[in-house]
């Protein structure tokens, strides 16, 4: 079975991979806007960046909430998150066998 076929049957694992990638991207977006905000000298640009930063934070929260609700992310339980990450690594390794 090819990796593409395995991913098609992966179900929740596939959804979790997509959600995790979205969460990582959302975090990077928040950081980028925060840095840009501290670097600008224009009050007009600063206001635009603040609005975009607020939207990025809201998007991050929505993604994180979705992942928590669907037991993909355990933000408040480090031990459980580490165990979950270990299981994901094992599943990922199975996909590439």
From TrEMBL:
One of its GO terms (biological process) is sporulation resulting in formation of a cellular spore. Transmembrane segments: none annotated. InterPro entries: Ferritin-like, Spore_coat_CotF-like. It holds the Pfam family Coat_F. Its main location: other. It is found in: Spore coat. Keywords: Capsid protein, Sporulation, Virion. It comes from the Bacteria. Belongs to the CotF family. This is Similar to spore coat protein. The lineage of its organism: Bacteria, Bacillati, Bacillota, Bacilli, Bacillales.
């Amino acid at each position: 079975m090819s990796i593409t076929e395995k991913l098609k049957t992966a179900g929740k694992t596939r959804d979790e991979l997509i959600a995790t990638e979205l969460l990582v991207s959302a975090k990077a977006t928040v950081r980028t806007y925060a840095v840009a905000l501290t670097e600008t000298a224009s009050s007009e640009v600063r206001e635009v960046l603040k609005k975009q930063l607020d939207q990025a934070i809201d998007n991050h929260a929505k993604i994180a909430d979705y992942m928590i609700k669907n037991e993909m992310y355990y933000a408040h339980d480090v031990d459980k998150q580490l165990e979950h990450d270990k299981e994901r690594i094992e599943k990922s390794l199975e996909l590439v066998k």
